[in-house]
Design brief:
By secondary structure, this protein is mainly alpha-helical. It is built from 6 helices and 2 strands, in the order ααβααβαα. It binds a DNA duplex through helix 3, helix 4 and strand 2.
Length: about 110
DNA sequence: CGAGTGACCGCAA
DNA sequence: ATTGCGGCCACTC
């Protein structure tokens, strides 16, 4: 409600998209993390919905589940997402899971 | 305008 | 160890 504070007035979707846009090159974040950063830790599922219907220009390929596994509905398939991450220096195994996931995980507090 | 669905997460049998 | 279920918000049909 704080008129001077823009973040509070933004909706959940807006905040999620903002956080996704802030994910740096070569790092990844989880749906739950983005949901928590947006104020609703239990709304991780909504983040997936936003990824599907939201702004496609955002780096959604840097968003994965808590296990470091790639998304199932990524445009082009998980193979494409794995290739994109690999290009950024984030290797994935044959199971479409990020290798050394914790090491590449983005830390907003950092 | 109402209801269903979704690229998830955490906990309980 | 695996399976099943509830919860949250936004968007589509």
């Amino acid at each position: 409600m704080t008129r001077g504070n823009v973040e509070v007035s933004l909706n959940f979707r807006q905040q999620v998209e903002m956080w996704v846009a802030r994910i740096p090159y070569g790092q990844v974040a989880t749906y739950g993390e983005l949901a928590a950063l947006s104020g609703q830790a239990a709304a991780a599922r909504i983040v997936g919905g936003i990824a599907h219907y939201g702004d496609p220009t955002l780096p959604w390929h840097r968003v994965v589940n808590r296990f470091g596994g790639l998304a199932s509905g990524f445009p082009g398939g998980r193979e494409v997402q794995a290739t994109l991450l690999n290009t950024e220096g984030v290797p994935c195994d044959e199971n479409h899971t990020i290798i050394n996931f914790e090491a590449h995980r983005w830390r907003p507090l950092l």
